[in-house]
Amino acid sequence: VLARVASGGRVSLAVAAIAVALSITLGALVGITAGYHGGAVDAVLMRLVDGALAVPRLFLLLLLLALWERIPVGAFILIVGATGWFGTSRLVRAEVLRLREADYVQAARALGGGAGRIMFRHLLPNAAGPLLVAATLGVGEVILLEAGLSFLGLGIQPPTPSWGGMIYDAREVLVSAPWASVFPALAIAVTV
Question: What is the phi/psi pair of residue 136, to 5°?
């Protein structure tokens, strides 16, 4: 059980870290583009984000993952990461709207800085604080999401160990060997 919890931890943390990195990257790109350019670009991008936020993420994941009988880990990470950036984009957009009229941004514009330079050298580093908080909270959310989907049989597929999959496998011996499900559950709780 200890070996599978340790190995499952590696898988669960890798899935969470890579999926959150992907979602933070996508969210930051959309948010900084919408916030910096404003106008029609902002309106179109934010209406798309609003539409995506209207669909519950778990429902969308269940729908996408039900199409595969056995999903590869890489595809699972890609799907989880690609469905998690909507809130991040709104957060980055709000921060960029606040920062784009700052004196240092105006100075960069006056010195002839292009849009890309201003967005990625001046605005994005100064919007990194809320982005880092969102990423930290996102890791815990993705660990819970991955464990729940693996418990349902839609996430990481056996024989690859996953904390949610271990709890699912241990449901048959819950009375005679409760440690088989208690330790993966404790690992999830402590990590999140």
Answer: -65, -45
Q: Count the Cβ atoms, other than its own, within 10 Å of residue 147.
A: 29
Using CA atoms, how far apart are residues 44 and 22, in angstroms rounded to an integer?
22
**Length of the chain counted residue by residue:** 192
Nearest CA to 79 out of 142, 158, 165 is that of: 142
pLDDT in tens, 126-184: 888 889 999 999 999 999 999 998 888 888 888 888 899 899 988 888 888 888 889 99
Burial 62-90 (b: 16+ CB within 10 A, else e): eebbeeeeebebeebbebbbebbbbbbbb
Collapsed DSSP state (helix, strand, coil) of residue 6: helix
What is the crossing angle of helices 128-151 and 86-99, to 10°? Answer: 180
Which tens digits make up the pLDDT trace of 70-110? 788 888 899 899 988 999 999 999 999 888 888 888 898 88
Residue with tokens 């890489």: 74
